[in-house]
Structure formats: structure tokens, C-alpha cells
Specification:
It holds the Pfam family ABC_tran. Keywords: ATP-binding, Nucleotide-binding, Transport. This is ATP-binding cassette domain-containing protein. InterPro entries: AAA+_ATPase (IPR003593), ABC_transporter-like_ATP-bd (IPR003439), ABC_transporter-like_CS (IPR017871), ABC_Transporter_VariousFunc (IPR051782), P-loop_NTPase (IPR027417). It is built from eight helices and ten strands. The chain has one domain: Rossmann fold (3-Layer(aba) Sandwich). The strands form two sheets. It has a six-stranded mixed β-sheet with strand order 6-7-8-3-9-10, with helices on both faces. Strands 2-1-4-5 form a four-stranded antiparallel β-sheet, covered by helices on one side. It is of the alpha/beta class and about 240 residues long. The structure holds adenosine-5'-triphosphate. Adenosine-5'-triphosphate binds next to β2 and α1. The site of adenosine-5'-triphosphate has 11 residues, from β2 and α1.
């Protein structure tokens, strides 16, 4: 369970995140949507203790992320390319993480085999440094890394961005297959994908929760209306 209370973050007086209460139960596939600048990445960064909020608390499994290290053992994430180590090859990077999480070489091979189709023969065995991979392939490395150690919680910021359509489909399959055993937090501008893989959608506007609902047959229509400007905030 992730519990967010009275969370506020502003930059030079401009609100980036303002959330009174948001609870994400274990096993939920939580989708976060919102226009550019709505506060999605800021929220994810605060949850991961990468940014200090002005006020408020984020708890993961009962541990305050600001003061505990405990949550890190069961939280995998990929927010952006800064998570990667550019001067390593993907194999070296995965091996480095495997050591941190106490995986054997065999464990790591089993893990990576789940990403074989997504990797499309472009990631492993290429003797390329991560810095020389395409944006989409870097994203694949980061996503596969987020799953290392079999974390109970996986947070992915815009995972479909820069992936070709085939890779997007493979990534959706990977997420679908592990939905029963993990809590996912996924931000995305792709309304079709996010409503397809998530069980709950939260729409942020100027840092505030504008819509919070279990995905149903109306959700995609509502979101399309909102993003096409057909409704105002109150009507959503
Ligand atoms: N380091 C920073 N300094 C100043 N303002 C910031 C900083 N980081 C974020 N912001 C501001 O906070 C607000 C929320 O930004 P954030 O990146 O969280 O939005 P987002 O929903 O992830 O947007 P996008 O869809 O474009 O990725 C924006 O107004 C942004 O300009």
C-alpha cells in the first residue's frame, strides 16, 4: 500500500503537486494521466524520495520514504535516462543491479529472458554502451532494470514513449502478465494503453486530482473528452 497525505510541492509559487489524500492498495495497477506540466513526474519523484515535498508524507508499506530505506527493497522504478549508467553496456548494467539485489547469474538470465521479445535482439550481445543506444532501446533497458529483484511495486514514467508500436504491445503484455503479483504505477500520455493496462486512473491537473476512478467502459471516453477540451474541469 502506498499512502500519500497532504502532499504539496511548488516551484517559485507555482503549484506542481497538491494532493490531500491518495491511497494505492497493493496489487492495484494505477495509471496517472495529465497534460504536460500537470505534475505526474513530480509526484513520482516525490514518491521515490528524489524530490523533497514542501509538506506532506508518502508512506510505502508503512514506511515514510523520507526517513526509511525499507521501501527500496520492494520498489523498482524507471523515471528517465538518468537512472541508467551510460558508460556500461546493458549486460554490465543488469549485472551491477543483479549484485545489488543478490541475484545469481542464472536468476538474471531467467529475468532477462522475460524481456527477450521486447529487446528484439537489439539490447544484449551488441557490445554497445548504454549511451549509444536509441532512446527507445534505452527505455527498454530501464524498464527491464526496474523489474530486477522482483519488486512488489513497479513505477514507470511514460513507459510507452519512444517505443515502436510492436514494442508497446510487448510491454503491455509484460505488464499484463505480472499485474496479479505487483502494484504498478504508470504515467502515460497514451490514453488507450493506460486504460488498457490499468485498473484505476487518476487525472492530474495543475497538481490536483481531477478524476479518480476504477477503469470502466466510460473512462476512455471521459479522458478523450477532457483532453480534447470538450469538457471543463467541473464536468469531468
Ligand atoms: N526543477 C523544477 N524547477 C522548476 N519547476 C519545475 C521543476 N520540476 C517541475 N517543475 C514544474 O512543475 C510542474 C509539474 O511538472 P512535471 O514535470 O511534474 O509535469 P508532468 O505532468 O510530468 O509533465 P509532462 O507530461 O510534460 O512530463 C510544471 O509546471 C513544471 O514546470
Amino acid at each position: 500500500m502506498i499512502s500519500i497525505s497532504e502532499l504539496k510541492k511548488s516551484y517559485r509559487g507555482a503549484v506542481a503537486v497538491d494532493i490531500t489524500q491518495l491511497d494505492i492498495p497493493a496489487g492495484e495497477s494505477f495509471g496517472l494521466v495529465g497534460n504536460n506540466g500537470a505534475g505526474k513526474t513530480t509526484l513520482f519523484r516525490i514518491i521515490l524520495d528524489l524530490i523533497r515535498p514542501d509538506s506532506g508524507i508518502v508512506m510505502i508499506e508503512g514506511a515514510n520514504v523520507r526517513t526509511s530505506e525499507e521501501w527500496k527493497k520492494h520498489t523498482g522504478s524507471f523515471i528517465d535516462e538518468k537512472f541508467l549508467i551510460d558508460y556500461l553496456t546493458p549486460e554490465e548494467y543488469f549485472g551491477f543491479l543483479a549484485k545489488i539485489y543478490g541475484l545469481t547469474d542464472q536468476d538474471l538470465q531467467v529475468h532477462l529472458s522475460k524481456f527477450e521479445v521486447l529487446f528484439n535482439n537489439e539490447i544484449l550481445g551488441k557490445r554497445k554502451y548504454i549511451r549509444d543506444l536509441s532512446k527507445g532501446n534505452k527505455k527498454k533497458v530501464g524498464i527491464a532494470a526496474a523489474f530486477i529483484g522482483n519488486p512488489a511495486i513497479v513505477m514507470l514514467d511514460e513507459p510507452f514513449e519512444n517505443l515502436d508500436p510492436t514494442s508497446q504491445i510487448h510491454l503491455k503484455r509484460i505488464i499484463h502478465e505480472s499485474r496479479s503479483e505487483k502494484t504498478f504505477l504508470i504515467s502515460s500520455h497514451d490514453l488507450n494503453h493506460v486504460t488498457d493496462i490499468c485498473t484505476r486512473i487518476v487525472l492530474l491537473e495543475k497538481g490536483k486530482v481531477l478524476l479518480d476512478e476504477q477503469v470502466n467502459e466510460q473512462t476512455l471516453f471521459k479522458l478523450n473528452d477532457y483532453f480534447s477540451g470538450n469538457v471543463n474541469s467541473e464536468a469531468t
